[in-house]
Description:
The chain is of the alpha/beta class. Helix 4 (111-124) packs antiparallel against helix 5 (131-137), helix 6 (178-189) packs across helix 7 (194-201) and helix 16 (897-914) packs across helix 17 (920-934).
Amino acid sequence: MEPAAAATAQRLPETSREDRAPAPAAAAALAALAAAAGGGRSPEPAQTSAAPTGGAREEAPGEAQPGPPPGRAGGTGRRRRRGAPQPTAGGAALVPGAGSGANSLLLRRGRLKRNLSAAAAASSSSSSPSSAAAAASHCPGSTPGGNGAAPEKAPPPPTLYVQLHGETTRRLEADEKPLQIQNDYLFQLGFGELWRVQEEGMDSEIGCLIRFYAGKPHSTGGSERIQLSGMYNVRKGKMQLPVNRWARRQVILCGTCLMVSSVKDSWAGKMHVLPLIGGKVEEVKKHQHCLAFSSSGPQSQTYYICFDTFTEYLRWLRQVSKVASQRISSVDLSCCSLEHLPANLFYSQDLTHLNLKQNFLSQMLEAPGWLSQLSLKSLNLSNNHLGEFPLAVCSIPTLTELNVSCNALRAVPAAVRVMHNLQTFLLDGNFLQALPPELENMHQLSYLGLSFNEFTDIPEVLEKLTAVDKLCMSGNCMETLRLQALRRMPHIKHVDLRLNIIRKLIADEVDFLQHVTQLDLRDNKLGDLDAMIFNNIEVLHCERNQLVTLNICGYFLKALYASSNELVQLDVYPVPNYLSYMDVSRNCLENVPEWVCESRKLEVLDISHNQICELPARLFCNGALRKLLAGHNELTRLPERLERTSVEVLDVQHNQLLELPPNLLMKADSLRFLNASANKLETLPPATPSEETSSTLQELYLTNNSLTDRCVPLLTGHPHLKVLHVAYNRLQSFPASKMAKLEELEEIDVSGNKLKAIPTTVMNCRRMHTVIAHSNCIEVFPEVMQLPEIKCVDLSCNELSEVTLPENLPPKLQELDLTGNPRLALDHKTLEFNIRCFKIDQPSAGDGSGAPAVWSHGYTEASGVKNKLCVAALSVNNFCDNREALYGVFDGDRNVEVPYLLQCTMSDILAEELQKTKNEEEYMVNTFIVMQRKLGTAGQKLGGAAVLCHIKHDPMDPGGSFTLTSANVGKCQTVLCRNGKPLPLSRSYVMSCEEELKRIKRHKAIITEDGKVNGVTESTRILGYTFLHPSVVPRPHVQSVPLTPQDEFFILGSKGLWDSLSAEEAVAAVRNVPDALAAAKKLCTLAQSYGCRDSLSAVVVQLSVAEDGFCCCELGAGGAGPPPSPGIFPSAASMATRDRPADALGVPSSSSGMASEMSSELSTSEMSSEVGSTASDEPPPGAPAESSPAYASEPRCALHPVGLAHAFQRQLSSATFSSAFSDNGLDSDDEEPIEGVFTNGSRVEVEVDIHCGRAREKERRRPPQGPAEASDEGIVISANEEEPGPPRRADSAAAAAGTVGRRRANGSVAPQERSHNVIEVAADAPLRKPGGYFAAPAQPDPEDQFIIPPELEEEVKEMIKQQQQQPPPPLQPPGPGDQLPDCCDTPL
C-alpha cells in the first residue's frame, strides 16, 4: 500500500447520524422482514460478535449457518419483497450519499444479525478442528434471549468428515464408523480378504482414495467460489475527487455482488451492495495492488480497493472477472461440500441460475421459504444425497428448471403441483417406480427426465403432460413396450427406451402411431422388429439387439442405425426418399437391398462387416452418395463400368478384390479417400489417360496387397496425394522420378517390402512429416533429416550399417526408430541427440538381459493423429531374477500421464504382491487395486486401460509347466496363439456385458448416448477415474493357462489395435514373422492402414516350449514317461533335483531371487560372444558317452543328462575386472583364452556347472570341505594349487556343448538340448580348481555377491594366469569301487 493511502486510512470518517442510530421505523420494518422470513417469530436480541480487525478471510465451505434472507434493499427499479411492510418516511430507505446505482441495506439487531455474526465467526474459525461444532452452536434459536448470554460450555469434540477421491467432504452421522466405511470401500474396490483390507487401510497413500478429517477441511478453491472477504482500504467514487477518502472497510464477494460495509464495524451498519453482472474490474496502476470495481448501467458506481498482498489481489481479480464476464446472473457452487448456503448469497437480488451440484444440502432444504427470496429460474441439486424430495424448492414460484437427479429419491410428493412455471424437470438416476397424478398441473412442463430409474411401464400421468414431446426412459426395467400406451400420448414425438430389457412390442390392435418421429431402442433384447406401425418415423436406433429381421416404414425415414445385430433381411417400404444416413454394419446381410439404390438422398452408407458378395452398379450412380463403407465383406469385384460418381470416401478393405475397376479413378472426380487394403490387388487403375489429371485423391491406403513396381508410376497421376500407405506389398524399388512428382505428400508408409533405398527425391516433399519404412532391406540412411516438417522416421528392422545425422536436427522431429538393424554402429555424438523417442538397439553386454530362450519379445508404440503418445509398453524378460517374465501394455486414451505411471510402477507392485501370495488371480487382482492407489491425484480425474501378462514357474513343482497369467482392465487385451488359432485371455468390460450393465444401473450412474459412464469412459473396469467410483472399478479380469509346446506366441495390444484387427487376423498376420520386433511393427502398421487414428502399442512375445522341458530325474528306470505338459525350459534348461541330500546345495528362498529350479538361460549377447570361441560341439577327450555303463543304472531327463551324487549348477558370476581383457576373452599378455572364463571387456563371467542327480542309498559321500574364507573386501580364493582327493569325473559330451545354441531369425538364441543354465549371481565364494573352473561349496549363501574389488583385480588375474599355465591332471573314470565325488569339473 502506498504511504498516502495508509495515511488516509488512519483518518476514518466520523460515523454519520444515520449510521449511529437507526430510525425506529426502519428497525421495525427490518424486524418484520426477518420475522416473515423466519416463520413469523420476532427477532431476539443478542450480542454482536466483533468483526475481524484485518487481513483477508475466505469462508470455509458450509460452515456459515444461514439465517433468513436479509431481504431486498431499496433502490430504483428493485421490487419490494412480497409481504414486507411499506417503508415509512423515516424508515429503511436509500441512505443519503450511497447513490442510486448501489443498493444498500441497513442491518439491525435481531436474528438476521445473529446469523450473519455466526457466519463470520464460523468462517473465521474454519481452520480449527471444532469449526463444525462452533458453527452448529450458532444455529437460529440456540441463543437464549432476554436476560444476557448463556453460560459457556466445554467445546464438544470435533465432527468427523470423510472425503472420497479428493472431492467433496461429507459429515459423518453419529452412527457411522470410519473404519467400517473404509473397509467397505476397499472391499468394493476388489480386495478379497480382511487382513489385506486392514493392511491397505494403514497405508498413508490411501488418502488419495479415502480420507477422514476431524473438523471440516479448508479448501482454498472451493472457498473462493463460495465467498471472499477481508478488511481492506476502500475508496468510493472517482479517484480525482478530494472529498472521497480511503477508509478501512469490510469487503465481501458472494454470489454476483460486491458488498462494502459503511462503517468499520462491518455488522453494525449498512452494507453497500454493488451488482457485478455486466460490470467490469480494472487494475489501478497508480496504487499498488489496487482494483477498480464498477457496476453496469448508466448509473454505475465504482469502488477502489487496495489489497494488502499480491496473492489477495490476484485472487480477487480472478474471481470477480469470472462474475463480471457472465451474460446471465449465475452462481456455480458445485462440489463445494456445502451443508448450508452462505447467508450473503441472498444479497444477489438478480441471481437467476444457481448450481449446487454435488454438495450435502439435505438439511438446509428442510426449511421452506429460504430459497423463495431468490428469483431463481434454474436450480441444480443433483448428487446431493437428498434421499427425499426437497419440499423447499416448491416455494420458488419463478423456477423453470429443476434438476434433482442422482439423489436416491423413491417418490415425488404431490406438493410439486404448485410449480406451475416449471418447464424442465430432471429426475434421472433415482429409484422411482411411479409418478404422482398431481404432475398434471404442470402445464408448462416440456421436458421430464426419467432415465435410469425403476419403471416397468410408461407412467400414465404423461398422458396429461401435453407439453412434453420426448419420452426419456432409458435405463429402466421395461420388458415389453405396449404401443397402446404411446397411442394415448399423441404429444410424444421422441421415444428414448435404450438400455432397457425390452424383448417384444405389443401392438394391441393399434393401427399407426403417426406422432412418433424418433424411436431409440438401442441395447435391448429384441429378436425382430416390425416398425411399420410408426408410419411417420424419421430416425430409428436399434443397434446392439438380436434382430434377425427388420421392417420399417420409409415415408419420412431420414436416418437408420441398425449395426451390431444379426440381420439377414432388411425391408423398408416405400422407398425412403428422405433417407440420408444408413448404418447396417456388423450384420449378416448377403446383398445390398434394392431399395437402397433408389434412395436419391442417401449420403452415407455403411455396410461393412457383412457377407455381401457384390455391389450393384446403380449404387454408384446415386448423385447424393458421398461416403460408402463396404469393408470386411466378400466382394470379389466392383462394378466394371462406372458412370460419373460423387463418392468422396470409398472403403473396400478386407475383401477379395483382384483388381479395381479400370475407370474408377477417372469417373470418381470427387474421390478424396480410398482404402483398398487387405485385398489381392496386383495392379492399380490409371488416374487419367493423358498426362494432365484432375484427380483430387488425398489419402490412399493399399497395405497388405500384392502390388509390384509396376504400380508406382500410376501413383504420379494423383499430384494432390497427402497420405500414401503401400506397406506389405511386393515393391522392390520406388523410382526417384516418381517420388519427385508427389510434392504434396505428407505421410508415407512403405514398410514390409523389399526396398533397398528411399529415393533421394523425397526432399521435394517439403510437407513430409512421417516416413515409415521398417522391415525392408534399406542399407543407406535416407536424406529425410533435411525435411523441415519431419516428425517421425521409422527405419527399424532394416540393414543399415551407419547413420549420419546433421548437427542441427529438424526442429519438429519427435521420433527416430533405428532398432532391429544388427549391423548399425553409432558414434557417441549420434547417441547424444535429445529426441523424445530415439530408439536404438541396446549395446551388447556380457550378461545381456538374462532372458531365457523360452521367450523373446518385441514391442512398438505409435502416436495418433494428434502426435500425442498416449500408450506405453512394459517388458521385463528376467522378472524376479531370470525365472519369470512380465509384459504389459497401457492405454491412456487421451492422456499421457497415466500410461507413464503404470509403466514405471506396475512391475514393482507385482513383485511385492508375489511375496504375499502365489495364487495367480489373487496377486494379479491386488496388483491392479494397489495401482489404483499408486496413481494418486492423477487417478482421480484421469484413467487408463491396462493389460499385464506374467510368465512364471512354480518353484515347488519342478516337473510342472510354465503358467501364463493375463489380467486386464479396459480394452487392452491379450491373445495367445495355440496351434495357429487365437485363444483370447482377456475380456473387455463395456455396456454390452449384461452383468456390468446391471452393476452400473444398481449404482445409478448415467450412461450417455455414446455409451460412456457419465460421459467419461465406455469401460466399466479401468484404472483411475476414481471420481466415478463405485460405477467404475479397477478389478481386472484374470485368466491363467499352462503353456504347452503348441503355444507359439502371444500378443498384447492397446485399444486401437483390437478395434482395427480381430484376434484371428492378428494371429494370422504375424504367425510367419520370425522376428518379434518385426511382428509388433507389422501389427501397428496394419492397424494404422485399416483406419486407426489413436495411439497404438503392441507387444509380441514368441514362445519356445519343448516337450521334454521338465525334470524326471527321480523317476525309476522303469518309471512312467514324462508328463504331457512342458517343463521349465525347452531342451536346454536345467533344474535342481528334489529330495536332495542334506549336505547338497541348498535351495535359496524366492525372496533371494533364486528359486529351487535355479532356471535361467543365456541371453542373446552372451551366446553370441561365446559361440565359436570357448564352446565346441565335440566332447573333450576322455569324456564318457551318456550311454556308457557308468551311467546306465541312473535314468536321466533330457535336461540333465548326467547325474551325480551332489548336484550343482553352472552360473555366471558378475565379478568386475578392469578393461584390460579384450572382447574375445584374451588377456593382453595371454595367447590363449582362460578356460571357463568369459568376458566382454568390463565383466568377467565365471562358469560353474550345477547338475541335478538322484542320491543313491549306497553312495559313499566325501567329507564336507569348509568353504573359502570371505573378507569384507570381496572374495578370497584359496592359494592351494590342487585339492587332495580322488580325480574328478568329466562331464558328458552334452555338457561340453553347453554354450552352443542356434540363433533364431528374431535374434534370440535357442540353446541345444544338452546345454546348462547360466545364473548371474554366484551362490557363494567358490574354490578355484586346476581346470580353471570353480566348484560351488556345500553350503551356499544366496545373498552373497561374487564381487572382486579393484584393489584385488591384479592379484586375481595373476593367480588365474598361473593356474592356466599348469597342465591339468589326467582324468580317468573311476572304478566300480570308487566313491562318487561331491562335485565334478567339466572343462570345455
